[in-house]
Design a protein that fits this description.
single chain; mainly alpha; 9 helices; cytoplasm; aromatic amino acid biosynthesis
Length: about 250
């Protein structure tokens, strides 16, 4: 995120992130559920008792932290206790958000949503033994979802700067419900819902050359992508927005 936060640059980023999320879901859909990936103790890893997917996350996150990934305000670790010091020279990332917002991290909620609610909607039952590939795809999906949902901080900052008096009054009152109502735009949410569904159709359509298939097939059901945004991505983004605004004047 460059200096000079604007509504337009935030909107462009959110639209690009839709592409990333849809493509990550398509990649994960190549593999069945592969349930052993999520069973604690399935992999005989010395000194580690969690699931294979947690192991992959922790190790990947640790490596990424050594090259400075989590020094950016846009990045949020799933296991903050597992970060290592960066080995690279410090980069002066633009700090466009209020410092109090750095403490907002709802990745625990995102993790639970993904594995317990979203994944069963599009991953077929079965086990093909591709456990490492499956965990790697889960990693990509969750990182994309986390970035998109926590981008609510940037959305909230733009909205606050556009209407500081309206938001300021509610922030001083710590009125969560009123803040949620003020930042909600149902027409925009409906547009996002239709756009991501259309992207899932465009990106995930099974292409044939003979033209004999009467029924169009998709790698991921577009309705599932639409539901993902309606039930989880947009509500959780707004939750992040409210939490950020509540501490915006600290």
């Amino acid at each position: 995120m460059a200096d000079g936060l604007t509504l337009e640059c935030v909107r462009e980023s959110l639209i690009r992130q839709e592409d990333t999320i849809v493509f990550s879901l398509i990649e994960r859909s190549k593999y069945p559920m592969n349930s052993p990936v999520y069973v604690e103790g399935f992999a005989d890893i010395p000194g580690f008792t969690g699931s294979l997917v947690e192991y992959v996350f922790r190790k990947t996150q640790a490596v990424h932290s050594t090259v400075g990934r989590y020094e950016s305000q846009e990045e949020h670790p799933f296991f903050p206790d597992n970060l290592l010091p960066s080995l690279l020279p410090s980069y002066n990332h633009p700090k466009v958000l209020h410092p109090a917002g750095d403490a907002i991290n709802i990745n625990t909620t995102i993790w639970d949503m993904y594995f317990n609610q979203l994944l069963p909607l599009f991953a077929t039952e079965g086990d093909d033994g591709n456990y490492a590939q499956t965990a790697a795809c889960d990693l990509e999906c969750l990182q994309a979802l986390s970035r998109r949902i926590h981008y609510g901080k940037y959305v909230a900052e733009v909205k606050f700067k556009d209407s500081p008096d309206d938001y300021g009054t509610l922030i001083h009152a710590q009125d969560r419900d009123a803040l949620m109502k003020l930042l909600t735009y149902e027409a925009i949410e409906e547009m996002v819902k239709r756009r991501v569904e259309k992207k899932a159709m465009a990106f995930g359509q099974e292409v044939t050359l003979n033209g004999t298939d009467k029924e169009v097939k998709y790698k991921v059901d577009p309705f599932v992508v639409s539901r993902l945004y309606v039930e989880w991505v947009m509500p959780l983004t707004k939750l992040v927005e409210v939490e950020y605004l509540l501490c915006r004047l600290d």
